[in-house]
Design a protein that fits this description.
Layout lengths: L8 E5 L6 H14 L7 E5 L5 H8 L4 E5 L16 H6 L4 E4 L2 H4 L5 H14 L2 E6 L3 H5 L3 H13 L11 E4 L13 H19 L1 H5 L2 E5 L7 H5 L6 E4 L6 H10 L6
Parallel strand pairs: 1-2, 1-8, 2-3, 3-4, 4-5, 5-6, 6-7, 7-8
Helix pairs in contact: 1-2, 5-7, 7-8
Bound molecules: 2-phosphoglycolic acid.
Amino acid sequence: MNRKYRKTLIAGNWKMNKTPSETKAFMSELKGLLPKGRWCDIALCVPAVCIPAAVRAMRETRVGIGAENCNANPSGAYTGEISTSMLTDAGCKYVIVGHSERRAMGETDADVNAKALAALDAGLVPIICCGESLEQREAGITEEWITMQIKLALAGISEDKIRKIVIAYEPIWAIGTGRTATPEQAEEVCQHIRVVVRKLFGSKNARATTILYGGSMNEKNAYELLAQPDIDGGLIGGASLVPSKFVKIIEDANQPTA
Ligand code: PGA
């Protein structure tokens, strides 16, 4: 982390977990446990049907609610889809785009780019995900792959909007597997992502970009990951479903930084 130049963000990704009633119970427990300090931004990206309950529960807190996906079109005949204006009107501040689980369902780099642009237009913070498979890592093409994903995801984003994005590096082999990247492995790729952003948008913008690590980050390994200079927070799946674990990770963001 580097709190001098950029925001730290601890973001939960609930995936397809919890009902609206369970959301209400989770949020009231979380409120009782939240640390008082303001050392990081906090987000919880929840299933679409849980958004109203989450927003209502967290209104007076510093926890921003987000969605896990959006459609890039403003409105129309897209049965089952949710637009960015629906999300902002419902009280969302964030939206995850390009999660590997959605890419596995057919989301392309062009879709990810369109969603990021639509999110920014609506005033949402897109949490843009990238990450390599185990096969790609073992073939030694992680950097090339990540460079391509980032360049395609950020295409057409204007200079004035680039500071509103968040990038999440999530190696696919580490998601939900309990096999976390080592702090060094995670730092290496997050640092590389910053280099890619620098080449595209200049050093000041790169320095100001929040880059998260995600993939089996939990209350036990978060401190070491967050101690890396280019890891500005986490995108947390499993451990964000338990208030005490999520809060421990938030507390781990309160450590000395460069
Ligand atoms: P995990 O998920 O923390 O359960 O590995 C992270 C994510 O997919 O965002």
